[in-house]
């Protein structure tokens, strides 16, 4: 059964898309065509299932459009592979998950990235380790308030509140909408480090923790660290390591929102410094 040997588990809005794109440049690594399979959170966090179904359909549609809109010949084998992911009668089962990795070239190191995995419980972690034959995990840790602010904006764009709250030239016209959206459970849940990291610490050296700011301060050093951890050679293939993936709206965090988020996240800062030390925590 083909399964990944490494999994990046988050955090959400902590550079996982950048890492995904960089790892795809490495000739010894194979990753599925879509980022974020969401298999284990689908199984172990049933409340996620409705939006995970939407996410998978949206991702597959986007990947199929890339292939069929290409001016060169259509890769029908790839089309069949992508279609099989959506039409498999055993969707969201161990067999379905393993089948996604069955097309990986022999000898490659396989992996996947799904940020929500960091929020899973011990039973789910045991499932991941059992199915994937004891893989290694990568966990990018981002400053709690900055991470929450990034997610808050994303959530508001998706539910339509961002355009209601922000006018042209990033002028905020309804600050209350920001405070309302902060109440959404995911703002804390996606980076409740104090609750989730101790569960991953049980795996000891199977988990690599990375401070988020290294993506901008030392991207090549970070990638070399990751390459060594997952067992691939340190080759000079990360030619676009300093390339920004998602450029944000440019909207600066209002003081009222920063204060609100700081109050919510205060214990997270205390925990990160206690767990990792000041040098690491100040670099998140």
What does this structure look like?
It is globular and about 55 Å long. The chain has one domain: 3-Layer(aba) Sandwich (Rossmann fold), CATH 3.40.50. By secondary structure, it is an alpha/beta fold. The protein has a 5-stranded parallel sheet with strand order 2-3-1-4-5, sandwiched between helices. Helices cover 52% and strands 8% of the residues. Helix 7 packs across helix 14 and helix 9 packs parallel to helix 14 (255-276). The mean pLDDT is 93.
Throw out a few tags for this protein.
single chain, 284 residues, alpha/beta, Rossmann fold, five-stranded parallel sheet, 15 helices, 52% helix
Radius of gyration: 19 Å
The name CATH uses for the topology is Rossmann fold
The CATH class, by name, is Alpha Beta
Secondary structure tally, helices: 15
Number of domains: 1
Structural class: alpha/beta
Task: Give the distance, in angstroms, between the N- and C-terminal Cα atoms.
Answer: 37 Å
Strand content: 5-15%
> Could you give a short account of the major beta sheet?
5 strands, parallel
Helices and strands, in N-to-C order?
EHEHHHHEHEHHHHHEHHHH
| Fourth-tier CATH superfamily name | P-loop containing nucleotide triphosphate hydrolases
In which order are the strands of the major sheet placed?
2-3-1-4-5
Helix fraction, binned, reads: 40-55%
Q: How many extended strands?
A: 5
Looking at the overall shape, the CATH architecture is 3-Layer(aba) Sandwich
**Overall pLDDT:** 93
- From the spread of the alpha carbons, the general shape counts as globular
> Which blocks of ≥5 consecutive residues have pLDDT under 50?
none
């Amino acid at each position: 059964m083909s399964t990944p040997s490494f999994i990046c588990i988050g955090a959400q809005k902590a550079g996982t898309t950048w890492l995904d794109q960089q790892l795809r440049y490495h000739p010894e690594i194979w990753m599925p065509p879509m980022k974020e399979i969401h298999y284990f959170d689908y199984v172990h966090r049933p409340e996620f299932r409705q939006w995970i179904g939407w996410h998978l359909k949206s991702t597959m549609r986007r990947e199929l459009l890339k292939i069929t809109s290409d001016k060169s010949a259509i890769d029908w084998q790839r089309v069949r592979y992508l279609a099989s992911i959506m039409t498999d009668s055993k969707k969201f089962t161990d067999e379905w998950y393993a089948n996604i990795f069955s097309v990986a070239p022999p000898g490659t190191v396989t992996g996947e990235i799904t940020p929500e995995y960091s929020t899973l419980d011990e039973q789910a972690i045991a499932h991941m380790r059992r199915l994937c034959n004891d893989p290694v995990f990568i966990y990018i840790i981002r400053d709690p308030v900055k991470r929450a602010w990034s997610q808050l904006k994303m959530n508001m764009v998706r539910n339509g509140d961002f355009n209601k709250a922000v006018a042209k030239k990033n002028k905020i016209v309804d600050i209350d909408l920001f405070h309302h959206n902060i109440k959404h459970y995911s703002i804390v849940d996606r980076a409740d480090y104090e609750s989730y990291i101790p569960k991953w610490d049980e795996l000891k050296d199977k988990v690599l923790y990375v401070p988020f700011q290294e993506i901008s301060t030392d991207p090549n050093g970070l990638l070399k660290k990751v390459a060594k951890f997952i067992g691939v050679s340190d080759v000079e293939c990360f030619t676009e390591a300093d390339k920004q993936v998602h450029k944000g709206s440019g909207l600066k965090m209002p003081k009222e929102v920063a204060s609100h988020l700081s109050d919510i996240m205060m214990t997270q800062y205390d925990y990160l410094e206690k767990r990792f030390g000041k040098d690491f925590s100040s670099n998140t």
